[in-house]
């Protein structure tokens, strides 16, 4: 009888312990993958730099000893490689975290930031700036127009889907679909009136790339990304309650409408900032949070930061692939993520349908 009574006491903490251990191990693994990706990406290219020289240069910059890379290597490392890597970290973390927030808000693993029109709206702003040759903000014109148009589009989607002081998920999604369609039509109109050089610039921007990375661009997107990434985990518990359904969440003290508004603003900041400096990079916000959820579970307090780390790692490694797979040419980052993400999305659709026994 003593053994039988003792068994439940020892077995009970096993599940909570596992729920804490798995996210921690996944976080360590993703952080290691990101750190390795940063070093390998900084080392690889037309001007290879040994890893020990990179570590020595970092130590020199931090005042911890070491020495700079000889010749032009120091300039290549800090002004070209590291600026591109850091921008990739910010873009990947922002898109993946925004995707996790969207999936939590809609209660659907198939949701992603583009659902509410921020990506297509930003594309309209950038294409408009390119097609009409706007230069009022110098080199920042395209990014500024993209970010502003993305925020305006999200505000329009939210306003159009709001009725009687409330927004329903279905109405929000359908409004986003309609606005995305309108944005596609506007992009087509701008392309129709653009000349060949402008069409080339528009096409390259829509493909997504980190090739234009500079430290001023990083400093511009850093505050927005930092604010969004810092605020997102604070909504983890309320997203967990929202997963029970809107009515149970309200009974448990969650102001669903205010929560939805706050999440839309954070998603708009994260996605608008990322798209403004990198162009359209698809599937990061869809694929990464879902993969993290499959391993670490649905709890948003772990899912949101792990998705950010995972998204940063995926973009850094994907950008390395774009620079090396077809060297000396460079594959646009958005094309590579779409080539990998589309089959995963198709598998996800079939998996969801099979588990639910159909869509009805």
UniProtKB/TrEMBL annotation:
Its main location: membrane. Keywords: Cell membrane, Membrane, Transmembrane, Transmembrane helix, Transport. It is found in: Cell membrane. Pfam families: FecCD. It is a multi-pass membrane protein. The chain crosses the membrane at residues 25-47, 82-102, 114-134, 140-160, 172-194, 214-235, 263-288, 331-349. The keyword Transit peptide does not apply. The keyword Oxidoreductase does not apply. Belongs to the binding-protein-dependent transport system permease family. FecCD subfamily. This is FecCD family ABC transporter permease. It comes from Glycomyces mayteni.
């Amino acid at each position: 009888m003593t053994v039988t009574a003792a068994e439940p006491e020892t077995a009970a903490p096993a599940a909570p312990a596992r729920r804490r251990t798995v996210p921690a191990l996944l976080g360590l693994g993703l952080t290691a993958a990101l750190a390795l990706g940063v070093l390998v990406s900084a080392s690889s290219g037309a001007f290879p730099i040994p890893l020990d020289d990179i570590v020595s240069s970092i130590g020199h910059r931090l005042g911890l000893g070491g020495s700079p890379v000889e010749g032009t290597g120091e300039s290549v490392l800090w002004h070209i490689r590291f600026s591109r890597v850091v921008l990739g970290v910010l873009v990947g973390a922002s898109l993946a975290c925004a995707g996790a927030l969207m999936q939590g808000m809609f209660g659907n693993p198939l949701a992603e930031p583009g659902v509410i029109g921020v990506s297509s709206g930003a594309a309209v702003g950038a294409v408009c700036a390119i097609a009409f040759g706007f230069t009022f903000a110098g080199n920042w014109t395209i990014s500024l127009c993209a970010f502003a148009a993305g925020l305006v589009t999200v505000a329009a989607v939210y306003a159009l889907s709001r009725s009687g002081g409330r927004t329903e998920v279905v109405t929000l999604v359908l409004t986003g679909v309609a606005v995305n369609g309108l944005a596609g039509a506007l992009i087509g109109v701008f392309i129709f009136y653009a000349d060949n050089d402008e069409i080339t610039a528009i096409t390259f921007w829509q493909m997504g790339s980190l090739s234009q990375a500079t430290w001023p661009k990083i400093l511009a997107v850093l505050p927005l990304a930092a604010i969004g990434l810092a605020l997102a985990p604070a909504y983890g518990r309320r997203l967990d309650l929202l997963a029970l359904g809107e009515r149970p969440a309200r009974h448990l003290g969650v102001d669903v409408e205010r929560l939805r508004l706050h999440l839309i603003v954070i998603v708009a900041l994260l996605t608008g900032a990322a798209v403004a400096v990198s162009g359209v990079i698809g599937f990061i916000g869809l694929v990464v949070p879902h993969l993290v959820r499959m391993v670490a579970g649905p709890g948003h307090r772990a899912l949101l930061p792990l998705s950010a780390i995972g998204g940063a790692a995926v973009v850094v490694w994907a950008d390395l692939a774009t620079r090396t797979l077809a060297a000396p040419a460079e594959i646009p980052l958005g094309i590579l993520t779409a080539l990998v993400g589309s089959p995963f999305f198709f598998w996800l659709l079939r998996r969801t349908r099979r588990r639910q026994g159909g869509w009805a």
